[in-house]
Design brief:
Elements lengths: L19 H29 L5 H28 L2 H22 L4 H29 L5 H26 L5 H17 L16 H13 L2 H31 L5 H21 L7 H10 L3 H7 L4 H29 L5 H30 L1 H20 L17
Helix pairs in contact: 1-4, 1-5, 1-6, 2-3, 2-4, 2-7, 2-13, 3-4, 3-6, 4-13, 5-9, 5-12, 7-13, 8-9, 8-10, 8-13, 8-14, 9-12, 10-12, 10-14, 11-12, 11-14, 13-14
Length: about 400
């Protein structure tokens, strides 16, 4: 059954970029992404100002992550039970109204900061599956890949320019004011997005866990989704975590300069920008295999850190990794929006965010002690193998070739 769309996007030849609904969706989603990214960086400025210690920063960010992980599965059920637009509204309001309490606690109460950060994390986690499902409501199926590419492009541009912009703003505004500014962004994320077309059927609140189980069953009905999610989780938990820990060490100890660290991170972002531009228009005949090949490209990042190569090879490897990750992300989101039952899309998307986002801190917690115990080289070697092997294994699942279910979709 084709997902209903709004009138202004109903014509397949209408450019998504001319749609007011897409503009509002893009702006709201970008505001939430910017608010999510900016808070750790701004609080890092507080550490430099000595109004916050590094340990306190870790506690606050851990609390935010905890709130996120708790909220994501709950929000998946709520966004399939109620209007996705309303879930986005309340998620943004929760995060926006809790943010000033982080500013109020800075330099005064770490407990207040952590509690407020946990609430912000709840808002952050609640909006992610709701935004994913709302995109499928607002954007016509033949335009979704371009729309998803445009939204991920905004995230990458933000990552590239926001550090310098934030540092510049810090010359004119205090850290507390900048923190409150992220709350304003959350309010924008709550109020700007358009309404959707999804009309959930009324359900009893006692069925909450049953509804979540229905989402799990829907995910299991798509072998390509389980295989891709397993590969993505493996890459994030190993390669992403290992390079996050090792790249600063390699930059300092092997090359005796921070330029390799800065160059690698910048190259990764520029590669991701290029990937988003390419995938906005490119349609592979075997879209699933092409996406998994892109995901496997992340293996070049830990591989480049294994040997004492010229810094240019490290930077190039990170550019390839960034390019590949977007060649995976955009088709992955688009296929999920296309293949999953509309009434269960938020719940299935919540599984995606729960594992992909949730395993990053877990991987970091495991990788750092492993490097201390066994050394960087063995850990990087294992992570390299996993990054290449996991997507290759996922590609062996027959439906992974096109990210298309072998069984016919159920009607809603």
């Amino acid at each position: 059954m084709r997902h209903p769309v709004t009138d202004d996007l109903a014509q397949p030849r209408t450019s998504v970029f001319r749609s007011l609904s897409f503009g509002r969706l893009w702006t709201g989603n970008t505001a939430s992404g910017l608010a999510t990214w900016a808070l750790p960086f701004i609080l890092g400025l507080a550490v430099l100002e000595r109004s916050l210690s590094a340990v306190d920063l870790g506690i606050v960010l851990a609390a935010r992550t905890g709130g996120f992980l708790v909220a994501v599965p709950v929000a998946g059920v709520l966004a399939d039970r109620h209007s996705r637009r309303q879930v986005v509204l309340w998620a943004g309001l929760i995060a926006g109204l809790a943010t000033p309490l982080i500013a109020a606690g800075t330099g005064r109460s770490v407990l207040l900061m952590a509690a407020a950060a946990a609430v912000v994390g709840i808002g952050q986690g609640a909006c992610r599956p709701a935004f994913q499902a709302l995109t499928a409501e607002v954007i016509a199926e033949d335009q979704r890949q371009r729309a998803n590419a445009a939204m991920t492009l905004a995230v990458r541009v933000t990552t590239l320019v926001a550090p310098g912009l934030t540092a510049l703003l810090s010359q004119f505004a205090s850290t507390s004011v900048l923190v409150i500014g992220t709350g304003v962004l959350w309010l924008g994320a709550a109020l700007i997005p358009p309404g959707g077309t999804f009309a959930p059927s009324p359900v009893a609140k006692a069925r909450f866990f049953g509804e979540f189980a229905d989402g799990l069953r829907e995910a299991r009905r798509h072998p390509w989704f389980l295989a891709g999610l397993g590969a993505l989780t493996a890459v994030i938990a190993t390669g992403y975590s290992a390079t996050g820990v090792v790249l600063p060490l390699v930059s300092r100890d092997r090359y005796d300069t921070e330029a390799v660290l800065a160059g690698g991170l910048t190259a990764y972002t520029l590669g991701a920008l290029a990937g988003a531009v390419v995938i906005a228009r490119w349609r592979s005949k075997r879209q699933g295999w092409a996406a998994l090949l892109g995901l496997g490209c992340y293996g070049f990042a830990p591989l480049s850190l294994l040997f004492p190569v010229h810094p240019a090879f490290v930077i190039a490897a990170y550019a390839v990794a960034g390019l590949g990750i977007e060649l995976f992300n955009v088709p992955w989101f688009t296929a999920t929006q296309r293949e999953v039952e509309p009434g269960k899309l938020a719940r299935v998307s919540s599984l995606d965010f729960l594992f992909s986002y949730g395993l990053a801190p877990a991987g970091l917690a495991f990788i750092a002690p492993a490097i201390g115990q066994f050394g960087a080289v063995p850990v990087l070697a294992v992570c390299t193998v996993v990054c290449f092997a996991a997507p290759a294994a996922a590609a062996l699942v027959p439906s992974s070739r096109d990210f298309h279910a072998t069984a016919p979709s159920k009607k809603v």
